[in-house]
Amino acid sequence: MIKKILFLLVFATSITYAQYSVKGTMTPPEESDWVILYKIEGAKQKFISNGTITFEDVTIGGNVQKVGRFELTLPADASIGAYRVTYRNQGTGFVDFFFNKENVEFVFNPQYPEESILFTKSRENKVYREYLEQISLTQSALDSLQDAYLKADEKKTKKAYKNAYKQQDEIQEVYEGKSEGMLVNTYIKASKPTYSSSIFDESQEHLDYIIESFLDNVDFSNKQLYQSPFIIDKVTNYVFYLNIGGNQEEQQNLYKTSIANVMKRIKDEQIKKEILEYLITRFTNARNSEIVDLLFAEYYDKLDSEFQDQKFKDDKLGELMASVGRTAPDFSWKEGDKELSLANLNDGENYLLIFWSTQCGHCVKEVPEVYEYMKSQPNTSVIAFAIEDNDTDFKDWATNKLPDWHNVIGTHPEFKLKNKTVQAYRIEQTPTYFLLDKNKKIIAVPNTVPDVKDYLKNLATENNEE
Predict the structure, then answer these.
(1) d(Cα 96, Cα 81) in Å, to the nearest integer?
(2) In 3D, which of 174, 212, 180, 220 has the Cα closest to residue 194?
(3) Contact 352/435 with Cβ under 8 angstroms?
(4) How far is the C-alpha of 376 from the C-alpha of 67, rounded, in Å?
(5) Interacting residues of 30 by C-beta distance below 8 A, sequence separation 6+
(6) Strand partners, 106
(7) What pTM, to 2 d.p., does this model score?
(8) 52: part of which helix (H) or strand (E)?
(9) What tens digit of pLDDT does each residue of 222-275 get?
(10) Contact by Cβ (8 Å): 280, 295
(11) What is the pairing mode between strands 54-60 and 63-75?
(12) 109: CB partners within 8 A, 6+ apart
């Protein structure tokens, strides 16, 4: 009997320890009292569990300070890899860490998680953070020396650069050795800086080298690398932040070139699909229809059919129906006995389409200002689309306050924002402005009244030059 009890105690103890803990301390704490744990799988996150933040007062250096603590658990069979603890619905409200069958503990400031995080338990994460901090110092030193050399060509700077480069190589070698056999070894090798061993004489040479070598140490076929933020972060930095153009046309061309450079490195169809969907979503959110069209036509549509998601494509293209470069979705209305439509309207060289509402405070302030300004723009016809529950106030505005404009009302029996035209233009707030050319192609989506004025002034200048 005693043997059975002892066996049960040992078994119960083994069950207790057959899980791993993830503990975090926020200082100072967030206002929210929840955290969510995800496993990172490429460009996506898989929900694992959620927890509650508890608040307490602690004494640090004789001062009482409030902190927030949370604890999450991972089962014994949890997959190794990259995980994310999120504590905000939006913004940079998360902490990433690696899990490799060990408990993880960390302290951080939730306002600056990446800069402040300190791992107090987890050899994997301690080694990786140490590496990042050490290698970052050498990168800063090399950048400073390169900048100094471009300003003043001095031999001592060139010599200092060579020494700093050597130190960087030594640090890389130390941490590759220190992490041998560990999960983070893959990430340390992939993070190896791609700095030139020689200092550059020209700034453009330096910039070209940075861009050309940025992805050299990234193995896009490595599934372990992909199941973390690493590759997505690299692609994001390369496409959106490293290649910056001086004007819109140059920027679009840089996007196209950088995307082509990324895509030619990816052979795995599943990884290519997920990176493409990530990029398409980013450019859709930016309403950049030209690049979205290119991503579909040149890359996504050429994936094997099993990797294409028609619903994803339809949804994204639907979101861009009313974006720059597209023909504005058509709609019709009545003016007296006349049946008019946007597509057939021909009373302007350009058109300003305004979605507004008589019940919107911003609108009733802005629209009269636009009305007065548009008196000086005789070549631009205005269509004011009022999103209303009924026509009670609309009639007064259309007749007495906005004469000479095309006044259209859009309603819906359930909710006015469900109106078909409102949905087609993806209107989420009022007022929203669209500037169209003679053929009803959207040429700009101004955010404010000053933007509207600026776009119209630029159009007038361009027309005069022609």
Answers:
(1) 11
(2) 212
(3) yes
(4) 60
(5) 53, 68, 87, 88, 93, 110
(6) 24, 119
(7) 0.77
(8) strand 44-52
(9) 989 988 999 999 999 999 998 887 777 888 999 999 999 999 999 999 999 999
(10) yes
(11) antiparallel
(12) 26, 27, 28, 115, 116
